[in-house]
Amino acid sequence: MTRPGIVVRAPAKINLHLGVGGPREDGFHPLVTVYQAVSLYDDLAASDGDDWSVSVTTADYIHPAAVPATGDNIVDRAGAALAALHGRERTGAITIDKAIPIAGGMAGGSADAAAALVALDRIWRLDTSDDDLLRLAADLGSDVPFALIGGTALGTGRGELVEPVLDEGSWWWVVVPSPRGLSTPEVFGHFDRMFPAAGEPAPADDLLDAVATRDPAVLARALHNDLQPAALDLRPDLAAVIERGEAAGALKGMISGSGPTVLLLCAHRIQAQVVAGALAVAGHEVVLVANGPVAGAHVVEYA
Ligand code: C5P
Question: Quick one: 43 and 148 in the same domain?
Fold first, then answer.
């Protein structure tokens, strides 16, 4: 029997500011970060049924082999957590259409988890409160709560405590995924080795002031990523991507989160297209243009 379904879209995230402190007792790192949701999306379609299944299709620029095997991925866990909260069975057929680079430092898995929470809440008719959804999201991963709220937001704790930031800018990014992913725990571990004396995470005040100006040249000077030295040490080839993008006219290049995706902030859409074109000519097979801020996980279709 075909049952009514839903499509939920969730965005990739970037970190405009990523201040990282020394590891806590639980192994996580205290963060002060400013997230921005950008216009690269995974779409998650869900309809209820008697069983539970998750399948994945990918954009042509994502290698299907990079997709984590189903069975115990973050979407399975999102379904289990929401079902447990309401004391019900986990049922449904889920299809994820992935366009967010995988293992790229753009929180694609977190986007899928957020989309699953929103979709299952609707098709199971649960009306879960925002507080409960945010709590379940935080248990699933440090940046899942942000994928729910989207926009631009300040993140603290291990990144799971999120607070929206007024952002009236329209920021244009060139996104250069890497053919090989980087493991987030590995990059954090390398950060610990490189900076054994790390104390409190760097505050985000300068970045927040820069966002308020709505001026990309000002934002370019305030971008900050404490994981960048560790990511570049593990993947020295990425420095050339940043340099190439800046030489092509981007205001500033940086590593996205724990990498290896490279971000290039541009003054406006046309400049982003020019920079993307130059990188494609230089031999980069996948170069994307995205803008932010955009909405968090939201329903786009009732089928
Ligand atoms: O929270 P999440 O499951 O997404 O984190 C993945 C991994 O990244 C953690 O297991 C940890 O190794 C690292 N991490 C960290 N500090 C954070 C967030 C993540 O060390 N604040």
Answer: yes
Contact between 107 and 1 under an 8 Å Cβ cutoff? The reply is no
Total domains present in the chain: 2
Ligand 1 site-directed mutation target among 18, 25, 29, 33, most atoms within 8 Å of CB? 29
131 a catalytic residue = no
CB of 105 within 6 A of ligand 1: the answer is no
**Catalytic position from the list 121, 143, 167, 226:** 143
Give the structural domain span for 252: 171-292
Res 71: pLDDT: 63
Structure confidence by residue, pLDDT tens digits, 157-191: 999 999 999 999 999 999 999 989 899 999 999 99
Could you tell me the pLDDT band of residue 69, with boundaries at 50, 70 and 90? low
Whether residue 13 has its Cβ less than 6 Å from ligand 1: no
299 within some domain: no
